[in-house]
Input
Amino acid sequence: MRNTIITAALVTLVGTASVGAQENIVIDGSTTVGPIAKAFAEYYMKQNPGVNITVSESGSGNGAKSIMNKTCQIGAMSRFMKEGEFKAAVDNGVMPVAHVPALDGLPILVHPSNPVSDLTVEQVRRIYMGEIKNWKEVGGPDSSIVVISRDTNSGTYETFYGLVMEHKGSKEKIAGSAEYVGSNGAVRQRVQSTPAAIGYAGLGFVDATVKALKINGVAPSERTVGTGEYPIARALYMFTDQYPEMGSHLYRFITLYLTPEGQEIIKTIGFVPVTQYGF
Output
């Protein structure tokens, strides 16, 4: 009952008319969190015409820099803030507070024509290390594997590296032949146009133009990410400087993910609401 009352109150806050003068909210950071931020911004501005929300997708590292340098109100990140970033923010008078609007899996993507449907985390690691070089080594065609990775400033890259490339205390290097691209959408585009490619991107970027592999026998999905069964998964973050003032537009925007409307937006985009239970 208490949760129902809280949710109802939040819905009422979001749905009310704009209060006070024109307000600007600037969001910068992760290309993974970008679709959520953009959809939330579109919804919120329709409900509150006096508010202007801009969203830039410059990568999680830049999201951290923007919040610590006070050039945005929300730093969108697909990884948690590093200790050095947090210290730099505090030294600059910023107290980062993490909000988790959604969960996300990192599907391993191949071209739809590739017959391979299941790999282990170990096989993915060895492919990205350059130890497995040909698809025939994992049951696929006799074709050299084209390895696609996110750029190293990306939170998606750092999540993939931590969950796949770090193994038993060692940090394996990604092969020098790997291609690096600047967004999840660019990974998908490269894979969909390259029959021998392999890449990784957020769950919301999987569509009919690519094939998401099972990893350790588990397919990436809303359910398997929500239950923790899919082994390559993470939380997504929006950082603010301190906790927003209750009732402010920033507060009402950053808590939108707690409302039924916000949860539906997250699901429609292809991510997993943190408030969804009962898997």
The chain has two domains: 2-103+236-273, 107-219. Confidence is low (pLDDT under 50) at residues 1-21. The first strand starts at residue 23 and ends at 29. The domain at 2-103+236-273 is CATH 3.40.190.10 (D-Maltodextrin-Binding Protein; domain 2).
